[in-house]
Amino acid sequence: MRAFCMRFFWKAGTRIFCAPFFSTSLLLFLWLHGCHAQEEATFEELRVDNEEKIESDIGLGPGRPLKRLDIDQLEASIERATGLRWVDYSNHSQFQRFRSTLGIPDFFASTKEDLEVSPLFLKFLDDAARSVCANLINQEWRRSESERIFLTEAKKEDTTEQADGRDRIAKNLAYLIERFHGRSLALQAAELQSWLNLWKKAYETSRTNGNNQENAARSAWQAMCVALLVHPDFYTY
Fold it and tell me: N or C: which end of the chain has fewer CB within 10 A?
């Protein structure tokens, strides 16, 4: 069957030719030929100019600024580390009570939480730490050794004045730093020695205030609990 045709023109040099309308087969041939021609393009033709580089910061470098936990994350972290929540006498969350003051959005006046490490935030964190830690140490002193979650390595009567007591306190501090801050420290690490010195200072201060050995150790462990919670390694990431 003779295909329908129409007249159209293209130039080749200086001559003009007339051709029939392209059939389906001819169009397919030209399309395939075009794809094949693209595959044979040289590297120079396809080379991308990389002189202008685009830099993107995905926040994984050593210079990434620390971010603060939001209030819900902070409350959950305290409960996970200590087993306790910061509550009032009616067992209501104090963080939720002061949510507007702490910058939690209500989606009326604000839609974005304030995550600045402000003096107000640190004040409420200190209040929470002192309350939770007092309750935690009271419970630890009544628990048996197998039930404790804070004093897992040291004994209640241990002090830094005895070599074995000092070693157990250091092991307990290393355990607590990993529990609260997620970092593992060797017993000879300088940072762990700083924590041990802080424990010793708290113990000596309590003894100076007239407390006996056990109560002074109790005060020292409570001070360690507070220090671990208010440390930036606890509320930033």
Answer: N
